[in-house]
Amino acid sequence: METIGVIGCGLMGRGIVRNLMKNNYRVLIYDIDKEAVQRLVNEGAEASTGLTNMAAEVDYLILSLPSPELVKKTLVEEGVIASMRVGTKIMDMSTNDVEVTRQLNEYAGERGVNFFDCPLSGGPAGSEDGKLTIMVGGYDKVFPSLLPVLNSIGKHIEYIGPSGAGQTVKLCHNMVVGGVITLLSEAFLTGERSGVSKEKIASILQKGSAQTRVMEVFGQNILDGTFDDVNFSLTNMLKDIDLYRNLAEAQFIPTYVSQPVDQLYRISNHKGKGKQDSSAVYNTLADIGKKG
Predict the structure, then answer these.
(1) DSSP letter assigned to residue 22
(2) Which of 105, 111, 187, 252 is most buried (most C-beta within 10 Å)?
């Protein structure tokens, strides 16, 4: 039985762990949230005694962490890569900075460890159902060996290209998602104040050329005002938008379109909405647009 380590057992990580266990992998887990670890231990996962101990034991290591800084700290400063056996594989399923990803790939390769960026799309529901979309960057010759693991947790597995390619696609993807959420919010508010309910507008959008998967994932929170029902936190969306804009600016691409989206998420975060769903920008727009 192959052993897989999972670092990060939050909204995405816990579904990953459950589906790996369903597919008969031995799963070691680590998270600073001890309650999250215990819940999964109760379901059959094994709590790791420490990061380096886990690293030395696993065949594959999956990371589901909230920031590039934490990914780098865990893998390099905490000695995880240095503790892994030659030929083992890391799949970073966090959304990470492209340049940091390439640095980690080089660092791991020097130590005989295969590093892949494997960011995800599909949210907590897709994680629980094992129907995630996974965008993979890394060494193409080794990629096929990841497929049994990736197919255990995802429905659409796409090899994109060399190291950093998966993260590039994910950042572009999330920038579009964040932009569509803000545009939906503005359009709903405009329609409502003109006398048409947002429910009616949403219904027509999904029947016409403006149909979007973003509406299916995030739209219900806007319609119901259930912004504490988190599909993807506003703080995480802001982080990904920043990473996207850094990437775009490094390629000398004008960011005139993404800039107001970034500003709206920053205002929302400043107003204390960071732990709410990304769709909480709707309330920020509503507040800004109140009639005196």
Answers:
(1) H
(2) 105
- Look up residue 233 and give its DSSP letter: B
Report how far apart, in Å, the C-alpha atoms of 151 and of each of 16, 65, 143, 146, 269 are: 11, 21, 12, 9, 35
Reported pTM: 0.93
CA distance 179 to 190: 17
- What pLDDT was estimated at residue 67? 93
User: CA 292, CA 278: separation in Å to the nearest integer?
Assistant: 27
pLDDT digits (tens, 9 = 90+) for 224-244: 999 999 999 999 999 999 999
- Using an 8 Å Cβ cutoff, are 226 and 220 in contact? yes
**Residue entry with tokens 């990371």:** 63
Please report, rounded to a whole number, the percentage of residues in the chain having pLDDT higher than 90.
Answer: 96
Q: Which residue, chain included where needed, has tokens 């920008």?
A: 281
Q: Are residues 257 and 234 in the same domain?
A: yes
Q: Which two tokens stand for residue 11?
A: 């909204």
* Burial profile 199-235: b = 16 or more Cβ within 10 angstroms, e = fewer: eebbeebeeeeeebebbebbbebbbeeebeebbbbbb
Domain identity same for 157 and 174: no
Angstrom distance (rounded) from CA 19 to CA 146: 15
Among residues 28, 31, 26, the alpha carbon closest in space to that of 12 is found at: 31
CATH for 48: 3.40.50.720
Are both 125 and 194 inside the same structural domain?
no
Domain extent for 275: 168-288
Residue where one domain finishes, among candidates 111, 132, 161: 161
Whether residue 101 is found in the same domain as residue 228: no
The verdict on 26 and 43 lying in the same domain is: yes
